[in-house]
Model the fold of this input.
Amino acid sequence: MSDAEIGRALTDRAYSQHRRPPRKRGRGTTFRKPSAIPGFGAALGFTWLYLAVVILVPLGAVVLWTGSLGPERLWQIASDARVGHALRLSFGLSLAAAAVNAVFGLIVAWALTRYDFPGRRLIDAAVDLPFALPTAVAGIALASIYAPNGWVGSIIPFKVAFTPAGIFVALVFIGLPFIVRTLQPVLADLDREVEEAAATLGASRAWALLKVVLPTLLPALLTGFALAFARAVGEYGSVIFIAGNIPYVSEIAPLLIVMRLEEFDYGSATAVATIMLALSFAILLFVNLVEAWSRKRLGHGR
Amino acid sequence: MELKIRHVSKDYGTFAALHDVSLDIRSGELVALLGPSGSGKTTLLRAIAGLETIDEGQIFFGGTDASRTSIQQRNVGFVFQHYALFRHMKVADNIAFGLRARDRSRRPHESEIARKVKELLELVQLPELGDRYPAQLSGGQRQRVALARALAIEPQVLLLDEPFGALDAQVRKDLRRWLRAIHEETGHTTVFVTHDQEEALELADRVAVLSKGELQQIGTPDDIYDRPATPFVYAFIGDSSFLPIEVRGGEAVLDRSVLPLGQLSAPDGQARLHVRPQDVVLRPTGEGVSGRVTLLRRTGAFRRADIEVGDARRRIEAQLPPELAITEGDEVGLHFNRFAVFPSDAPHSTAPN
Done:
């Protein structure tokens, strides 16, 4: 470098230092560490704003409305036998449907991901149909084929449509895609070598599945379970057509809310809604904690 | 356990991954399968384990034909390149996996398993890490756990696929020495795959060189390096240059003049003369094969010279002592301490580069 060049470099440096003073850190941002990934502030701010507008404000309104009823009235509604039955039915069947989907959805996802067969893409696309179909259409279709004189209903020895069993069928129908779609990417990423390692160590196929593959799938399975369950609890459209809606027998909690609304009994409606909200939140939180724990064991956590 | 591989072939469609490979591995021997990528070395290793089916041939474990038995029955210890540890299990449970997977009648008692795991953790020098998860270990530590897991089942043969491929240079060197020590201690018949010739030569009792699905040569590191059987091995192992020549009546002919190399055993016809840089010695002009120095550069303890020979100006590389007084453009004579001549149409005559 010539003298002139060195001189220029030095002034450039001095100039840039002058123009860009060292950034001040740590003022008012106690939890924000300097990071190579920009945009933390903007992303977090937007997240809060979006959550507030889309979720927190509407749900907050429900809770506030319920709060204005007073504890006595709230307890009266919550302990009502009909409400209690509807809630038990909704949550019980939703959990059962999600559990059944967890098993059969796993098999479907397994077949779709691990094997290639004619029509695979067609079946793969069909899995999403419960997402796309208007729920009322699904409900009417299910009700007609599971009715005592329907295709399926006439074969099955017991009554499905217009009983809790019918509700269960509808909830399984709408929940399936959640399990399949959450499992597929994880199944596709499964390390073949891990299964091969199990085989070289003498493990039978069943033992390898049980001890090596399933634990790896557990976090995704739980996510899918939580999603399917959440969807099932709130499901209304498809269920009311197949349920028969008999109080104390096949009446689900969302239907009860709609009925109270139609009677202009907004207090009761929001009270039931708040109870559902609290129960769902508790269950989802629990599932998420189990999932986080199992994910951490897999070495994804920190 | 003695391992016999007999005429093994395997095709993937039209691509022959293995072509009529026969190989004997003696009991307690440490053998390297060496070759460039696509040479079939990993396919052969996986075929021994039963992870790959073979189209033709047999693989004998001792006296029994293992080629039609299942992976589980073969009882081989396989160490995968990326370890393939069970991420949701602690290190100790990983090692115990093979013992716990046995059916009830052959499964050792839990206390026996715990004792064995402890013993293996000590063997691989990780006695404190049994309670960790694989994610909490370094690459070298994971490799050791993978080895301990494979050894736990007391395998008939130990197979390692690129055992040090994913590790950095220093760890590699340490683990190499350590693996050799473990081999001496346990005495398992061991086969490992590598594309690193230095690793193969340093670690193995014998090296099997593969190219394009065919076995080129098997021999001790000295055999492979000093007495390469095919042009491929000559070119693949170490540095070498070659000179196209013609063999006429047992004499090497270049540009119509006979090279003073003595009597050759090669048949008449077009041929290639292979020579390693360290086997090239410079003589005064007029002696040996004449050439001209075109490039000189210092490489560590030696000097590398490019010397052009013949009308076609083929380049021969020479490794010279740095104190030798030559400059670029000098006319020199070349003497080859050791060289090999292969007919151009010999099988496996296609050498890399």
